[in-house]
Amino acid sequence: MSQVRVLVGTRKGAFILTSDGKRQNWNVSGPHFAGWEMYHLKGSPANPNRIFASQCSGWFGQIIQRSDDGGKTWIQPGTPPGEKNAEPAGPPKGESNKFVYDTSATGKPLTTHMWYDGTQHPWEFKRVWHLEPSPSDPDMVFAGVEDAGLFRSTDGGQNWQELAGLRGHGTGPRWQPGAGGMCLHTIILDPKDPGRIYIAISAAGAFRTDDGGKTWRPINKGLHSQYIPDPNAEVGHCVHHVAMNPSRPGVLFMQKHWDVMRSDNAGDLWKEVSGNLPTDFGFVIDVHAHEPETIYVVPIKSDGEHFPLEGKLRVYRSKTGGNDWEALTKGLPQSNCYVNVLRDAMAVDTLDKCGVYFGTTGGQVYASADAGDNWNPIVSHLPAVLSVEVQTLA
Amino acid sequence: MIRVALPGHLRALAHVNAEVQLDITGPVTQRSVLDALEAQYPMLRGTIRDHVTQERRPFLRFFACEEDYSLEPPDTPLPDAIASGKEPLLIIGAIAGG
């Protein structure tokens, strides 16, 4: 019997929601790491019982947690519970929360980035926004961090090394923080080409490597952002999220600050597919697990009013890869709803009838077991939801 | 024996329920206490002071015998009552955010 495990990161802890393949009755586990900001949790496709989690706090900084039993117990990689380093002079333990920007080439900071006022500012690590486990190696995981950088661990999250070619490729000094900080929030690993990785940064744009992270280039041609000095600039676009169906890794869908976009050539060129959306501002975007032209967004009124239009929470679905959109409302509140759906807070399962899930800043996690036709809240009163991921278990 | 009182979230990370006790040889200073604390509880590395710069995280403060030592140089000796274990070194999370 299939099982679904939904991993929910919130402002005040993590929650794990499980159900059988019917997805009607749910067990809720949590809060895990109560009181901490849980930016993201994601399971390893290579070992579904292995889950990585980003735990952080304004007081105590960044922690990386890992579970090897599906979320029942957790460790900080490299430092098992209760283990004491009785020999301070001995070899160092894994320092799973040590994210140090690479200065190996020169011994000096690689570059600076643009601050809000246009001056240059040094990179300062703040937190991990997104963890992306390798599809084939349970010990390999990537981390997207603020200030924007990409790190990789090859030992299960114990030690992290920056893939510094991203910050160092030349456009870094023109990257600028968005309202949420200068975060690398999207990491997409091409399932057919291990050398190809897509990432996205607010507010710098989307980037791609074809050599496993050594060299990078911006892939923002076709994006148009009226709020930046040059609307068609190579970088500086506020990309909110990018999604891909694994069966077609060259086709990407993007929710930009404003505009929903698609690319059919691995990001080389984007075209707008906002079509008949009532507003094309938003944060999340995702793709149906089995129908690569079926995509989902949650339109948000504007960048000044982060809630749904008219107080109606509506998921919009396009079955044509964009342009033609239909509102999905059954089971969603259609009055007095003023929540937001943040960029990493939507996911799909891979059961025959694709399940779609999203979380809100009001603490609801909604699930649809029929590709969006009908929705039900799994939970309704969590802390603000930062991220939602789904594991489909055999 | 040095006593250190941690904030609740750090006690949870370190899997301890109460004050921690540390053995320190040599001068008892902020640096030597934190070195010993992180050696005994490596999961706390990076949560109290920066991994690289070793600077105190901005929303944490160090109190000893009702005095704030947060801005003292890290090698300044702590009071005798801390060194003798009569009083704990308090690591406190700032009340911030309203």
Assigned CATH class of chain A: Mainly Beta
Report the sheet with the most strands of chain B, covering strand number, pairing sense and barrel closure: 5 strands, mixed
Distance between the termini of chain A: 7 Å
Q: Strand share of the residues of chain A?
A: 35-45%
Tell me the count of domains of chain A.
Answer: 1
**Alpha-beta content class of chain A:** mainly beta
* Shape estimate of chain A: globular
| CATH superfamily heading of chain B | Beta-grasp domain
Q: Which percent bin holds the helix content of chain A?
A: under 10%
Structural class of the helix and strand makeup of chain B?
alpha+beta
Q: Biggest β-sheet of chain A: count, sense, barrel?
A: 4 strands, antiparallel
CATH-defined architecture of chain A: 7 Propeller
What is the CA-CA span between the terminal residues of chain B? Answer: 37 Å
Major protein interface: A-B, 24 and 25 residues
- The tally of domains of chain B stands at 1
Shape of chain B: globular
How are the strands ordered across the major sheet of chain B?
2-1-5-3-4
The CATH topology of chain B is: Ubiquitin-like (UB roll)
Low-confidence spans of chain B: pLDDT under 50, at least 5 residues?
A: none
CATH architecture descriptor of chain B: Roll
Query: Rg of chain B from C-alpha positions?
Result: 12 Å
